[in-house]
Amino acid sequence: MGKKYLVADDDDDLRDTLCALFCDDTDILTANNGEEALALVKSHSFDIILTDYRMPVMNGIKFLERARETDHCIYLHSILLTGSIDKEVKSFCELNGIPVILKPFSVFKLRESVNSLFEESRGLFERCSATARPVHLSKDLVYF
Question: In CATH, what number is assigned to the domain containing residue 50?
Answer without folding.
Answer: 3.40.50.2300
